[in-house]
Amino acid sequence: MSATPGLAQQERLLARGETVTWHEGMDLRGWYPLYVERGETWADAAMCWRELGKTPFSDAFFVNTLARQPHGERRVCRTPLAALATLGDGLAPDAFIFHVSRCGSTLLSQLLASLPQCIVMSEPPVIDSLLRLHHDSSDPAAGIALLRQAILALGQRRSGAQTHFFIKFDCWHIHSLDLLRQAFPGTPCLFVYREPLAVLASHRRQRGPQMVPGMLHPAQLPLPAHQLAPGDLDGYTGLVLASLFNAARSHAAAGQLQLINYKQLPDILFSDVLPRFGIAPTAAQLQAMRAQGGVHAKYGTAYHGDPPAPAASGLAAIAAQLQAAYLALEALRLHAGQGQ
After folding, report:
1. For the whole model, what pTM was predicted?
2. Are the CB atoms for 117 and 52 separated by under 8 Å?
3. What is the mean pLDDT of residues 269-290?
4. Alpha helix (H) ranges present in the chain?
């Protein structure tokens, strides 16, 4: 099984540019893996890369940085999957950031990315591509090895100042936490979440792909059997959110996640996250980060909070069904002493 049509088209758009022919021993420093192109067999599969030159990963999402690169500087290359192992000297990730979507995770990653000592990769598509390949493959060990190599390739240092590396995953990747922990067993994992009605209302305004049936690989977003009316996207969004909350609760109960509530941002970054990972910003950097905390992380505009959900929208009933799962996360967070 290949990517669903929507995701496959998005991936192909990333690979537009001058084609560079790969050769054995090619130096791939400065190149970043994008996605896997499937072949008839595992041996026929190829990794597609983009060279980023000096373009910094400072945008809200990995794909936004690629889109910002001038067209004349875009170069692409297709290599055997084994070429992933040739970089090998990337930073191991300090932490994985998971989230329930529309909950402040982008703000957290953007504030970290503002520091010169941090590499932050926000939802790089190669992770989803490799997870799909893993689910469709008969060689799970090879899939885990590729995930590890790709993450290290994303963590390549472009300056001597870069000493820390964070990855923010797509929200549905909480269901793949066990696979990612096989690739990096000791990496701490954060999970950012928010009260359900606000998340539902945000997706009502602009739906993410995970909230549209059929957009994701079914193994990546396991949902219970349901009987929703055709076109009930709000109901489907509720099912997806329930799956994310419940997966996070299971992992948090096992001590595998540090829980962060939206209402703790951005303060918890300064009081807990930065000290935990040994990151010591200068006074000027801290001042700039606090100022950035008042700006919309995705759009760069002043942030004054989300508009309230209309009272008659029907979302309140769906949110009420999710409240127990949300409160279970809150209880685990407070029990662990992870702040108010």
Report:
1. 0.93
2. no
3. 96
4. 5-14, 62-68, 105-113, 125-136, 140-154, 177-183, 196-205, 233-253, 267-268, 274-276, 283-292, 315-335
